[in-house]
TrEMBL record:
SUPFAM superfamilies noted in UniProt: YWTD domain
UniProt source species: Thermomonospora echinospora
Protein name from the UniProt record: Tat (Twin-arginine translocation) pathway signal sequence
InterPro entries recorded: PhoX (IPR008557), TAT_signal (IPR006311), TAT_signal_bac_arc (IPR019546)
Length: 389
């Protein structure tokens, strides 16, 4: 780092000079040249906490749909501990919310099925006896990719509708998996790795819709700008960790959430508080947000983690710690708090996902009010309100 410059000043100068104006993704079609900055959100300020301890904009309401180690209301199913990554899927005239369990040995994933009016109709297991299932991603063909977060972790393809056993997908690599996002245009799956010197990957299946065979590739580059991909020689059985097999592989400090929309894959890195944006059409990498590049005050979004989005182009980024908020990043380049969970100071927000019609947002407080690392006090919520389409 140049003498006399702190990291924030140096990054602001070099990143903005590098320019994001050429970025062609959905978020950047109307954004200024530079990472998102604080501003007023489309829903107005957060109000006082409701009965569930959640601060929301006016017009939005919350409900608790599940508590760890307790029966899901209206069912005989006991909700799993440490709820983590999640996604929603259409199901007849209702929908399903899937949630991972980030505990060792028995982790897996569960599902809650909702009726057409949002009533809970059922809850059940879709994966069990796996380890530290952290995040994952939904596929266009209606399955949930549940990712194990340990050195030899694997991706499991699961079936939210139930009635079918989960399947291992070792061709997608054995490493400390975090999240996944499908790109149907290029027919690839992007994958993040939660290591301090981890990588960003994409998996090219031999046939789209079949993840049993294919090629795992790693992002190669030196930072913001043009990047390329190179195949990982031994993604399944290795003596050299996956992230160290390709010279020039770009390093990221703790890969977390991953979300694809409009030709861009957005992913977060917790070690440096960034939301990255990979422009798949042009094979370039840029920053949608960096908490060191916030000007004119404190960064509203810290502890970046899981990420999702809406058809309007808004990104929703959950915090691991921070102020226990979910922040929005709008297509206009504004970052602003959307909600805050009070009284869960030793927890983290996980699993943000919208119902198929975009009218409801689901997420969890992994460790709840107790903050117990085993996650036995996890809370899973639903937010309803006038989300913009």
């Amino acid at each position: 780092m140049p003498t006399g410059l702190n990291r924030r000043t140096f990054l602001r100068t070099t990143t903005v000079a590098g320019g994001t104006a050429a970025f062609s993704g959905a978020l950047w079609q109307r954004a200024f040249a530079g990472p998102a900055q604080p501003g007023a959100g489309p829903y107005g300020p957060l109000q006082a906490a409701d009965a569930n301890g959640i601060r929301l904009p006016s017009g939005f309401t919350s409900r608790v749909i599940a508590r760890s180690m307790q029966r899901v209301p209206g069912t005989r199913y006991t909700w799993h501990p440490a709820p983590d990554g999640g996604a929603c899927f259409p199901a007849g005239d209702g929908w399903i919310y899937v949630s991972n369990s980030e505990v060792p040995l028995v982790g897996g994933a569960s599902a809650v099925r909702f009726g057409p009016s949002g009533e809970i109709a059922d809850a059940y297991r879709i994966l069990t006896m796996t380890t530290l299932n952290c995040a994952g991603g939904a596929t266009p063909w209606g399955t949930w990719l549940s990712c194990e977060e340990y050195a030899l972790g694997i991706v499991y393809e699961t079936y939210p509708q139930g009635g079918r056993s989960a399947v291992q997908r070792p061709a997608m690599g054995r490493f400390k998996h975090e999240a996944a996002a499908c790109d149907p245009e290029r027919k690839v799956v992007y994958l993040t790795e939660d290591e301090g010197n981890g990588c960003f990957y994409r998996f090219r299946p031999a046939a789209w819709g079949d993840l049993s065979r294919g090629t795992l590739e790693v992002l190669v580059g030196s930072g913001v700008g043009a990047v390329t991909w190179r195949p990982v020689p031994a993604p399944e059985l290795w003596t050299t960790p996956t992230r160290d097999q390709v010279q020039g592989a770009m390093r990221f400090t703790g890969g977390e959430g991953c979300y694809y929309a409009g030709g861009v894959c957005y992913f977060t890195t917790k070690g440096d508080g960034r939301v990255w944006a990979y422009d798949a059409a042009n094979s370039t990498l840029d920053l949608a947000y960096d908490d060191d590049l916030v000007t004119g005050g404190e960064a509203p979004l810290t502890g970046v983690d899981n990420i999702t989005g809406t058809v309007s182009g808004d990104l929703y980024v959950a915090e691991d710690g921070g102020n226990m908020e979910i922040n929005m990043i709008t297509p206009e380049g504004v970052v602003t708090p959307f909600l805050q969970v009070l009284g869960h100071d030793e927890s983290e927000i996980t699993g943000p996902a919208f119902s198929p019609d975009g009218s409801r947002l689901y997420f969890s407080s992994q460790r709840g009010r107790s903050g117990f690392i085993g996650g036995t006090d996890g809370h899973t919520y639903e937010i309803t309100g006038p989300f913009r389409g």
